[in-house]
Amino acid sequence: MSERQTAQRRRRAREFEAFVAGAAGRLLHAATLLTAEAPGVSPHAQQLLTAALAHTYAEWDRLRGEDPYDRTRQELAARFARSGWRHHKTHGGVLERLTPQERLILVLRLYEGVAEEQTAALIGLPVERVRAICTRAIATMRSAPPAPPRAPVQAVS
Predict the structure, then answer these.
(1) Is the separation of the CB atoms in 100 and 44 below 8 Å?
(2) How far apart are alpha carbons 42 and 133 in whole angstroms?
(3) What is the enclosing helix (H) or strand (E) of 3?
(4) Tens of pLDDT along 75-117?
(5) Contact in structure between 28 and 45 (CB atoms under 8 Å)
(6) Is 155 inside any structural domain?
(7) Band of the pLDDT at 9, cuts 50, 70, 90?
(8) Which CATH number goes with the domain that contains 133?
(9) Would 148 be classed as within a structural domain?
């Protein structure tokens, strides 16, 4: 391998590491919302994010001019859409009452601020359907009874 190729790989790795350092927290939060897992206990969200970041890294050199955050978010959403049914089990997260499709649309629209048209194109639904699902998901969240407070865990001596 030439010095030039080695230098390019190091530059690429540094750029990607800087991107991950700045974006991974928000992307992990979005993935946690998608999987409806409790914050801090989110193995499915971590797997989803790791796969999306791996895809972004593989495409890194071809992203020139594109927003890597947007590309990673798209990959995260696409991976979740393909496997969302696996994440429909109750995990104790705040969005557990929603279907995977409702969570995906709600997270993209409200948490990530993606426009209806862009959300519809991303998941392959008409804009009107995205709007209806988002409205239904918001109504479900508003009607959800507040979660009961959890009892503190006491250490057993």
Answers:
(1) no
(2) 25
(3) helix 3-35
(4) 999 999 888 656 556 556 667 888 899 999 999 999 999 999 9
(5) yes
(6) no
(7) confident
(8) 1.20.140.160
(9) no
**For the packed helices 116-123 and 127-143, what is the interaxial angle rounded to 10 degrees?**
100
Assign 55 a pLDDT band (cuts: 50, 70, 90). very high
Token pair for residue 157? 């001596």
SS3 for 12-69 is HHHHHHHHHHHHHHHHHHHHHHHHCECCCCCHHHHHHHHHHHHHHHHCHHHHCCCCHH
Amino acid at 138: I
How many beta carbons lie within 10 A of that of residue 103, not counting itself? 23
Domain residue limits at 112:
3-142
How many domains does one find in the chain?
1
